[in-house]
Amino acid sequence: MTAPELANDSFLRACLRQPTDHTPVWLMRQAGRYLPEYMATRTRAGSFMGLATSPDYATEVTLQPLDRWPLDAAILFSDILTVPDAMGLGLSFAAGEGPRFAHPVRDEAAVAALRVPDMARLRYVFDAVASIRRALLTSDAEGRRVARVPLIGFSGSPWTLACYMVEGGGSDDYRLVKTMLYARPDLMHRMLGIVADAVAAYLNAQIDAGAQAAMIFDSWGGVLADGVFQSFSLAYTRRVVQALQREHEGRRVPVIVFTKGGGLWLDEIAGCGADVVGLDWTMDLGRARAAVGSRVALQGNLDPAVLFAPPQTVAREAQAVLDRFGAPQRTDGGWDGHIFNLGHGIQQLTPPEHVSALVEAVHTHSRRLRGADAARASK
Question: Active site includes 106?
Answer without folding.
Answer: no
